[in-house]
């Protein structure tokens, strides 16, 4: 299974701060010729779009009108094999900026502690982690908000992938889950973005193990690949899925990202400037291609720094 992810919106706390900004995940089945079939469907639809709506040969979603988006949903999204979606969204104006800073500072302190304990080594050398810590500390509010949303989108999309595969009898798709995240917005710093996402997911999998099915016995392929004994019982080891992966890829070379980019335009227009026309287009996605509880509206929760630090590191937080 391929999970392609793209963002839409600026995530700014000034311009468009009252609008909803998204990370959208698209789910593509790939066993047999399914992925090839979807690519052919998309390229056939791409050929119908005017060159005036392309930049350097690539369709730009913001240039598409409602008619274009409607044909995209009917001919690409809802034509079998269907594409499924889930998303994480945020309204910057609704967030407490000081609380966002608290979340960022806490993560910086976790890295500092990791350097002392050398918990990252030998997977990463000390110099890399020191540079990574400096990089994270320098991220502004918009950049960190994007990072925060993306890590939640990755974790949520994997949970949705399991649900999707199970209810459609495509469990074997889970043995090779690949992620493709549009690299346009990361300014050639993907090694640090990758590290942030991997470490966040690792900590999440230790504190909140992924749920599993009782019907998966010890000899089931999914059990053999993913199951661990976590602090709260058996669950999915998320590191098995994410570690060693390069998340960020060029949309020109990955049609799944281009599809996600166009789908994200539909989500953006529906939630931020809905009209009767775009509502009709979105209803097709909602009826045929959405996974369960597909939309997480991200909110920042206050937390006990000392308690959470102790839970993650096993050590008291230094003042």
Order of neighbouring strands in the sheet with most strands? 9-6-1-2-5-10
Helix content: 40-55%
Residues in β-strands, percent = 15-25%
In this structure, how is the largest beta sheet organized?
6 strands, mixed
Task: Give the end-to-end Cα distance, rounded to a whole number of Å.
Answer: 45 Å
The overall pLDDT, averaged over residues, is 84
Number of helix segments? 11
Low-confidence stretches: none
- Count of β-strands: 10
Shape: globular
Q: Give the C-alpha Rg.
A: 20 Å
Order of helices and strands: EEHEEHEHHHEHHEEHEHHEH
Description:
The protein is of the alpha/beta class. It contains eleven helices and ten strands. The strands form three sheets. Strands 9-6-1-2-5-10 form a six-stranded mixed β-sheet. A two-stranded antiparallel ribbon has the order 3-4. A hairpin with a 2-residue loop joins β3 and β4. α2 runs parallel beside α10 (276-288) and α3 packs antiparallel against α4. The longest helix is centred in the middle third of the chain and has 27 residues, at 141-167. The chain is globular. It starts with a strand and ends in a 6-residue tail after the last helix.
Give the SSE layout.
Blueprint: E1 2-8, E2 21-28, H1 34-46, E3 54-55, E4 58-59, H2 66-77, E5 84-90, H3 97-117, H4 126-138, H5 141-167, E6 178-182, H6 190-207, H7 221-226, E7 227-230, E8 233-236, H8 238-242, E9 248-249, H9 255-272, H10 276-288, E10 290-297, H11 305-313
Helix pairs in contact: 1-2, 2-9, 2-10, 3-4, 5-6, 9-10
């Amino acid at each position: 299974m391929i999970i392609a992810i793209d963002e839409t919106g600026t995530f700014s706390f000034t311009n468009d701060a009252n609008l909803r900004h998204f990370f959208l995940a698209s789910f593509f089945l790939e066993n047999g010729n399914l992925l090839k079939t979807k690519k052919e469907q998309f390229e056939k639809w791409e050929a119908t779009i005017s060159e005036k709506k392309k930049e350097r040969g690539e369709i730009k979603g913001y240039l598409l009108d409602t008619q274009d988006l409607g044909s995209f949903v009917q001919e690409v999204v809802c034509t079998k094999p269907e594409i499924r979606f889930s998303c994480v969204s945020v309204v910057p104006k609704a967030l407490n900026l000081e609380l966002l800073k608290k979340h960022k500072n806490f993560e910086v302190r976790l890295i500092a502690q990791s350097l002392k304990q050398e918990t990252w080594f030998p997977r990463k050398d000390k110099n890399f982690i020191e540079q990574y810590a400096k990089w994270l500390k320098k991220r502004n509010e918009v950049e960190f908000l994007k990072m925060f949303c993306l890590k939640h989108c990755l974790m949520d999309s994997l949970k949705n992938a399991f649900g999707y595969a199970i209810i459609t009898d495509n469990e074997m798709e889970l043995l090779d889950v690949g992620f493709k995240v549009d690299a346009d917005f990361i300014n050639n710093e993907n090694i640090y973005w990758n590290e942030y996402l991997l470490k966040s997911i690792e900590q999440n999998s230790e504190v909140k193990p992924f749920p599993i099915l009782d019907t998966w016995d010890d000899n089931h392929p999914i059990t053999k690949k993913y199951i661990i004994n976590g602090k709260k019982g058996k669950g999915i080891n998320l590191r098995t899925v994410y570690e060693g992966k390069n998340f960020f890829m060029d949309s020109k070379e990955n049609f799944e990202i281009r599809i996600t980019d166009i789908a994200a335009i539909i989500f953006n227009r529906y939630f931020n400037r809905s009209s009767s026309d775009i509502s009709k287009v979105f209803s097709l996605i909602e009826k045929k291609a959405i996974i369960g509880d597909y939309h997480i509206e991200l909110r920042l929760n206050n937390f006990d720094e000392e308690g959470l630090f102790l839970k993650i590191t096993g050590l008291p937080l230094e003042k």
